[in-house]
Design a protein that fits this description.
The structure holds two protein chains of two kinds. Chain A is of the alpha/beta class. In chain A, 37% of the residues lie in helices and 21% in strands. In chain A, the strands form two sheets. In chain A, strands 4-3-5-6-7 form a five-stranded parallel sheet. Chain A has a two-stranded antiparallel sheet with strand order 1-2. Chain A starts with 5 loop residues before the first strand and ends with a helix. Helices cover 77% and strands 0% of the residues of chain B. Chain B is an all-alpha fold. Classes of the chains: A alpha/beta, B mainly alpha.
Chain lengths: 131, 120
């Protein structure tokens, strides 16, 4: 077991934060780390799929519209593999992205945050998931 | 209709996003000031070259990040450009990109002169 992230006898929730916007990545990384979570900030959906070969987070918080590989393709890629299909995903999006959000819903995505959102709302969702 | 203009720097909006942590907001604003000039250059090039997909991607990203930190006027300008590009209307994209660049400088000035200690 990796003891690096054992704190006070409790394993810290491990979260991938995915966004091609460095401001959003840094904001969520710093905020959630400050709230006791372990965070890996990743730029693109493609890099997430590569990382998922090596490690599994408890949760992914991802932008839905990204340059190289977007949230829809990321979700499809995860659902195609039994070991990643059950990892919960919170999608972040803008009002203007209704079409792509509906695609994500059709694929079974349940959690959405509309930008800009108070960072506390991410934490509320995470806590509701018991993570 | 009497609609209030969004502010160049709406500290209250920004700090509420960051759960009233003014230090964290300030840190992210500094990152924004460092990262954004390259985005603006890329946006200008995309506008000059008529690269619609690039205009949409960059203006979308810029609209999102600026809204996070309370750069609301900048966010509005970027969102408007994104919407126009999605409609394939990029005839004024070069001018729009310039206006966005000017507003970024306004934001830089507003954030630079803001009394962060008083804002806490």
């Amino acid at each position: 077991m990796n003891t690096e992230y054992i704190q006070a006898g409790k394993r810290r929730t491990y979260i991938f934060v995915v966004d091609d916007d460095p401001i959003m990545r840094a904001s969520l990384d710093k905020y959630l780390t400050g709230k006791g979570r372990r965070v890996k900030a990743i730029r693109d959906g493609y890099d997430v799929l590569v990382d998922l070969e090596k490690e599994k987070p408890d949760l992914i918080v991802s932008d839905i519209r990204m340059e190289k590989l977007d949230g829809i393709s990321l979700l499809k890629g995860m659902q195609n593999r039994i070991e990643t299909a059950r990892i919960p995903v919170i999608f972040m999006s803008a009002h203007a992205d209704d079409e792509i959000m509906n695609q994500a819903k059709d694929l079974g995505a349940k959690f959405f945050l509309i930008k800009p959102f108070p960072l506390s709302s991410v934490l509320e969702l995470i806590e509701k998931m018991g993570l | 209709m009497n609609q209030e203009q969004p502010k160049t720097f709406d500290f209250r909006h920004g700090v509420e996003i960051f759960e009233n942590d003014a230090d964290l907001l300030r840190e992210i604003v500094e990152l924004f000031l460092k990262e954004t000039p390259a985005e603006l250059e890329a946006l200008e090039s995309a506008a000059e070259g008529g690269a619609i997909e690039d205009i949409i991607t960059i203006s979308h990203r810029l609209a999102g990040s600026s809204a996070m930190i309370g750069a609301l006027r900048l966010s509005g300008l970027a969102r408007a450009l994104e919407m126009k590009a999605k409609e394939e209307d990029i005839t004024e994209a070069g001018d729009d990109a310039l206006r966005i660049k000017e507003e970024f400088e306004n934001f830089r000035g507003a954030a630079g002169s803001f009394d962060w200690d008083a804002g806490k």
